[in-house]
């Protein structure tokens, strides 16, 4: 019974991680100028969506394929989304 419970828990955690990963990739893909490859580079460089959101435009510009203009656009888009979420009582 314990092994069954552990396997069900592992399955649920894996599913939740996939959902979160898809959500941030969709959010980043919605930013003009970001395709699948640039989204992948951002997430690989920073390691998590939380770190991408916390990054400054200068830090984003360090990622291969990102110039200062695109980095500023990503930064602004993520900040705008975060502020809107907080205004609605989201996280």
In short:
The protein is mostly helical and 91 residues long. The chain has five helices and no strands.
Structure explained in plain terms:
It is a single chain. The chain has about 90 residues and is mainly alpha-helical. It has a domain at about 20-80: DNA polymerase, domain 1, CATH 1.10.150. Helices cover about 75% and strands about 0% of the residues. It contains 5 helices and no strands. The protein has helices spanning about 1-30, 35-45, 50-55, 55-60, 70-85.
Would you identify the CATH architecture of the domain at 21-78?
Orthogonal Bundle
The arrangement of helices and strands along the chain is HHHHH
Number of helices: 5
DSSP strand tally: 0
**Major sheet size, sense and barrel closure:** none
What is the straight-line distance between the termini? 36 Å
What percentage of residues falls in helices of 4 or more residues?
over 70%
Structural class by helix and strand composition: mainly alpha
Any idea what the radius of gyration is?
Answer: 16 Å
User: How would the global form be characterised?
Assistant: elongated
If you average the pLDDT, what whole number results? 82
| Spans where pLDDT lies below 50 across 5 or more residues | none
Q: Which CATH first-tier class of the domain at 21-78 would you pick?
A: Mainly Alpha
| Proportion in β-strands | under 5%
The CATH topology of the domain at 21-78 is DNA polymerase, domain 1
Domain Helix-hairpin-helix DNA-binding motif class: 26-45, 58-77
Pfam family, one: HHH_5
Protein name: Helix-hairpin-helix domain-containing protein
Organism: Agrococcus jejuensis
